[in-house]
Amino acid sequence: MSKILIKSSKHADEAILRKTEFVLTQEKQVVIHFTFKCKPGMAFRIWKTTYLITKRGNKIPLIFWSGISLYPKWTRLNHVGKYQFTLIFNGLPNECRVFSLVEEINEPGGFLVNKLIRNEEDVYQIIL
């Protein structure tokens, strides 16, 4: 996570600047990079009902995706090799040490990755 520096000006209240800097540096996100082997004709997508779920049952929502389509659209592949996409979620609670990635859908084939061990960067690589 990069820190955003706020420089004071003659017109800015120092207390507001300190509070704003604290809020901006405390924002957390979880980034999950997926890599998998692909072949022509494969198609996949992600549903907005994809969450990180803590041991306590807290659902952390998906906020951004790259390299994959959101339901109902499909991402269709036309090559052999590796394919990568990225999902970004809101931050996990500070006390969370283990979590799962769950795509809650009403059809077979949703993502499920259990027992992800939290790391300091909150950036993960999942190879399928």
Figure out the total of helices.
1
Name the helicity range: 10-25%
Overall shape: it is: globular
Average residue-wise pLDDT: 83
3D structure, described in words:
A hairpin with an 8-residue loop joins strand 7 (98-103) and strand 8. The longest helix has 13 residues, at 14-26. The protein has 128 residues and is mainly β. The chain has one helix spanning 14-26, and strands at residues 29-38, 43-44, 50-54, 59-66, 75-76, 81-90, 98-103, 112-117, 123-127. The relative contact order is 0.26. Residues 1-12 and 20-25 have low confidence and may be disordered. It has one domain (28-127). The radius of gyration is 18 Å and the shape is globular. The protein is built from 1 helix and 9 strands; from the N terminus they run αβββββββββ. The strands form 2 sheets. It has a 7-stranded mixed sheet, with no helix packed on it. A two-stranded antiparallel ribbon has the order 2-5.
Topology:
Elements: H1 14-26, E1 29-38, E2 43-44, E3 50-54, E4 59-66, E5 75-76, E6 81-90, E7 98-103, E8 112-117, E9 123-127
Parallel strand pairs: 1-9
Antiparallel strand pairs: 1-6, 2-5, 3-4, 3-7, 4-6, 7-8
Features:
globular; disordered N terminus; 128 residues; 7-stranded mixed sheet; 9 strands; single chain; mainly beta; two-stranded antiparallel ribbon; 1 helix
